[in-house]
């Protein structure tokens, strides 16, 4: 069994930037995380360190003594305190502070694309997005100004949910115009959206997958 991170390593992992996974620590501490496969050193200057997928899983799992929580219908918050709204959250704090958080998270994600995609491409989703499909799609929508749904679905707004397809999310939005707007936003963000009709409810929805080329 793999040894759990030390208390110091755990603090460094928990303090990583919420979206990019950028780490801060001494060279010795960061090298130890790299050796354990929880971080990697970016080959391009300034050679920052970032969480690997395994490191992200450690952060999201929480302390080992914590009891597992039931799987939520909406994506959980990142341990850094920020979470893109996937729709259906119980409370939604709006205003300038939230707008700044969303803008900062989106810019951080673009930077992560630049640093981890081949040729520094920022118009294609990166590995983090492919491993966090619901959060990534929701961040693209919220950063573009789309309104997430509240607890009462009939009031409108988008909802991003998982699907049986491993590389696709479903985006629900009762307003047809807003749904097409979501599709255009995702397309500009590097996703491939397509519109479908639920055969039972006749509801129109999107299936969206991160574009690869």
TrEMBL record:
Basic and acidic residues bias locations: 195-205
Region of interest: Disordered: 43-81, 189-213
Protein name, UniProt field: Uncharacterized protein
Organism: Streptomyces neyagawaensis
